[in-house]
Specification:
This protein has 128 residues and is an all-alpha fold. The protein has helices at 2-20, 39-53, 59-80, 85-121. The protein has one domain (2-14, 33-121).
Length: 128
Amino acid sequence: MKNLRVNKILAAIALLSLVGCANTGADVRPIVDTQGINQAQYERDLADCQNLAHQQSGAGESAAKTAVGGAAVGGLIGLVTGGNGTRIAQSAGVGAVIGGATGAYSGNKAQENIVKRCLSGRGYRVLN
């Protein structure tokens, strides 16, 4: 019963992490030094760069891929440590949650980096 409660807490934390990442990734608005730039042109360039970043796997797709791997690793750990069916399933669940959260974070960061590099390549001074 205690392990089930811990798994629910971990799942809630991972879900909150994914929700917190919802407005990042390709839709990031980096901090750019706007001195001497045409704001209308910047908005067009930002939109172009964000569209390019959407071609990269984002939080959802990356989370799904790494959740599957995390579940497999968690299940193996439960099996190796001598767990019964319930314990193996719990370990797989924890692995899926951790893997999914990790994948969501890395998918978002990859998209953010594309936007920032794209803007830098177009001559903007990206500050963050």
